């Protein structure tokens, strides 16, 4: 587990000069907590324990008994995302700074190729944007926005050569990104074989389109139309459908943006039935609700617009935090995708035009600490699991990321569980004018952030350097998702029943006709064998028609005319064993 | 109702011919709500009196029933006696099918009119009606299946609902590339039928995935009937049920699921009802009495006999579970989905299971098995038995209380039910023309001793059937059945959606008509076809409102390349912050 073996950047020498000792902290991993010092060098953790033998004169950080946790991994961001000729206001530099300020030391951004465009080109484009500006390590998901054989080839290349193991498909955005059930089936089948993770944006796009048209017809054009036209049932429905398809194709499924109780419940139920499915609530769904869509302030209401929408049910955040604590939901992202008010105002007269996205990359970890850990729902180990470790496992980056252990990357956070800060757009690190968590008081915050073995947050000062972030390639077949899948694949072999040929009578039928008289030619099937010795049959199907009560005139033509029966009904069979 | 006149004329004629006065004495009258000892007097096909010590004419025929149950005749809500498959018709037509129904205690059937894609619904309806009028021995009504969806269908539906007495239509979520409808079409169908006050019935299976699974199973070399359940796993049924209910909720329209075959589908319905959805579920004789393990039979003909869609679940605990749900009211009605194809017809698919005609028998066994599996085991009481075999159907499809109840003024469709009778099911003794019976060898407790339809005794144990071909009447049904629509109507009234009244946003608007320098390499594909360009920007200087907090200020670096016409944080003419 040496940092050198990973795909490097040209500026690795800068990293190697950093030697750092964290003293007196309590290391919290997803499985255990213990007191130990940590020594790191070259961006990698070299020693963990008491009384470490370290070179003299190195920088030492005193943790004073505070928790030392693996840096957060935000598994879902949209930095610098192009949208109708504009881009989101947080680019990779701004966004990753906000991430670091919140204790997140790795982000996973979504590459969104435009339908019809090359996935690889889009991937390279995102790589170049991110390499230039990101201040922390990153990986990429690639969204599959259309599907054909060449896309399949590209997905294959991305999986095998480019270090992408997760691909998002859309069940919403009709006539644009949306995939049909058949396409989903094919994609799931393919990725299931190749060891990729299927992520779904789960909403029923067809019904949304109908509902949107209905809302606009009713004269509802404000942001409340967004949530009215995307009720949470449609999210739950799509989640249910996605799980069904994944189960049929034996493919692990990852549901991005779990926004509602009903969708989360579906995931919960499916996990209880044994489905391999992961749910990702986001900062916004864990921290706030959809009542704000009815705000009289258009700009405020619009700032909450994201898809699936925040649920108007105010008990949703609590519920999702509970499921996160119980392990029914596994990872948290932020889906950070920030637009300025002016950009949101593209949809001021039509809610369907409002660019979708909320902030949350900076608030993610504090918010979960505040809502779940300080309330006693979740312990600190589970906190590490849902903010970092599970994401690393799904991306197949564990234990390089997501764990404080010798050989892991030196991405650490010293977490101050007593710190209290009030979220406001005035002080946040995003460029957005609005913060959907405005005014919330959150307990728990990073006091020191170490990324790639370097101090980036200390004493409230952020020293993030754009461009130092490395692309971390993800490999296919992560054990966390695929061990079970592989075992099932071996078991789930479908077998035919070995039985003799049916050699009884076959009715005439007309494959193309609609109830007309059948043509005689269609009678004999190509594989039909000669009639066997029927007297050997041990099986009798039929009763005697005479026993069917008094015959009437209409009783006689019970068989449609034009049917040629070669042997009497009740047939014969060469099978002797009746099961 | 002009078109119905000929039917009525004929009825009067027949009434004279066959008028029978009947007194049923000493029975226990069981309705869905109460049981009482009472005599029932029938005249002119109607129940005239119910009670003790009735005053009746002298020349009536008296049936002494000695404490047997007197129940409303069963209504089989789902039969397919004329459904064509690749040019074949089922061997049980309206005559044989209705005979079998009567022999099992069912005095009314509701058959599915199944036009092929492209056919006229009205023509198909008339074809079915004509055939049934000629052949059917018991009263009947018709559901019409929608094989396609386009504006012309709407006119036909209006005629069917308003003039022809049809209030239920089936749509398919399965059978890709023929009957299957997309979610958008379903939404439109639901919306339209709701306006007409009709009940939407769904064949709920995910056809897209079935098509994929069929291809996969065939490619593995599995061509026998076991390929049918393998390619129609019950998850796909549950998925479609869930989706159908979701759409029903969105449109606020009652949803009726035909052929509930699996535990998961039934559970999905149960959960939806817990959340208040107006949804009805119909298990069928086959799913209530047998299971899908037979698909793996070594005997091809036997395995093929069980082929129906959705398939019987291979889980042998399914029938029990479905009976539990029927007993507690989570499932409401029992149909038979009787669609009888002979073995030689089934053999059309001998080399490819996808071609096997789908359908099982069950019209005759329906009531017996519900009694045997649910009432005789103590899951269900006799009243609930009446509800699920007759009354609920009459309520959902607006036939109540003419059908489905023993009360003064109701049709004299009455069954004398003997709970202690036992019978072994065998194809040798069945009314159906099939050579096989999927319930072969099963012993069934409970059965009809006497069946009265239209006031005439048509079946007596030991004497067999005495039916008159063509005596069945078409029973028209009015739209907006209360049982399904009362809640819907109220919800429509109270659940109107309203926009928030807020002043116009008059802050800065990003210019999406931006000049090429802001546009990414391929601007053409990015814009959704439905998107519209925003109107021009207003005069921002007239605004008098400042948003919550001066968030637009200081320190925060702005990205270049963004055209902001007014400061972010904007303005608005609203003074009240929500």
TrEMBL record, chain A:
It comes from the Eukaryota. Residues 67-456 form the Amidohydrolase-related domain. Coiled coil: none annotated. The keyword Nucleotidyltransferase does not apply. Keywords: Cell projection, Cytoplasm. Gene3D superfamilies: Metal-dependent hydrolases (3.20.20.140), Urease, subunit C, domain 1 (2.30.40.10). It holds the Pfam family Amidohydro_1. Residues 505-579 are annotated as: Disordered. Residues 516-530 have a biased composition (Polar residues). One of its GO terms (biological process) is actin crosslink formation. The keyword Transcription regulation does not apply. Necessary for signaling by class 3 semaphorins and subsequent remodeling of the cytoskeleton. Plays a role in axon guidance, neuronal growth cone collapse and cell migration. This is Dihydropyrimidinase like 3. It comes from Oncorhynchus mykiss.
Automatic annotation (TrEMBL), chain B:
Residues 520-578 are annotated as: Disordered. Coiled coil: none annotated. It comes from the Eukaryota. One of its GO terms (molecular function) is hydrolase activity, acting on carbon-nitrogen (but not peptide) bonds, in cyclic amides. Residues 520-531 have a biased composition (Low complexity). InterPro entries: Amidohydro-rel, Hydantoinase/dihydroPyrase, Metal-dep_hydrolase_composite, Metal_Hydrolase, Metallo-dep_Hydrolases_sf. Residues 93-458 form the Amidohydrolase-related domain. Residues 540-549 have a biased composition (Polar residues). GO terms for cellular component: cytosol. Signal peptide: none annotated. Belongs to the metallo-dependent hydrolases superfamily. Hydantoinase/dihydropyrimidinase family. This is Collapsin response mediator protein 1. The gene is LOC110515429.
